[in-house]
Amino acid sequence: AGGQVASLQTYDRVPGSITSAIVRMSKSAPYQAILIADGGNAASAAVPVLRKNGMGGARVLGTELWNSESSIASKPALEGAWFASVSDGLYR
């Protein structure tokens, strides 16, 4: 579809690690979209840091992991984010 990976950052699941990854990534901003390949809790913590570091206009994308989190709709930071999902109606 013409997309291009402009930056790939990894982080550990320890306090401050995702913030450090975002700061490293922000050096080559702006981005059209940012995929957070982690659960909704990590993503909801990361989005305010993204916005604070100059990536306010980037579309936030998530994985199918977000679909299994019942509290995803109550996370204001993820409002308007897109994530992969399969309709529950496809399963018996």
Summarize the structure in words.
It is a single chain. By secondary structure, the chain is of the alpha/beta class. It has one domain (17-83). The protein is built from two helices and three strands. A three-stranded parallel β-sheet has the order 1-2-3, covered by helices on one side. The longest helix has 13 residues, at 40-52. It is globular.
Short description:
By secondary structure, the chain is α/β, with parallel strands linked by helices. The chain is 25% helix and 11% strand. It contains 2 helices and 3 strands.
Structure characteristics:
92 residues, alpha/beta, 2 helices, globular
Write the SSE topology:
Layout: H1 17-26, E1 33-36, H2 40-52, E2 59-62, E3 82-83
Parallel strand pairs: 1-2, 2-3
Helix pairs in contact: 1-2
| N/C terminus separation | 33 Å
Task: List segments where confidence is low: pLDDT < 50 over at least 5 consecutive residues.
Answer: none
Quickly give the structural class. alpha/beta
Question: What is the residue-averaged pLDDT?
Answer: 89
Shape estimate: globular
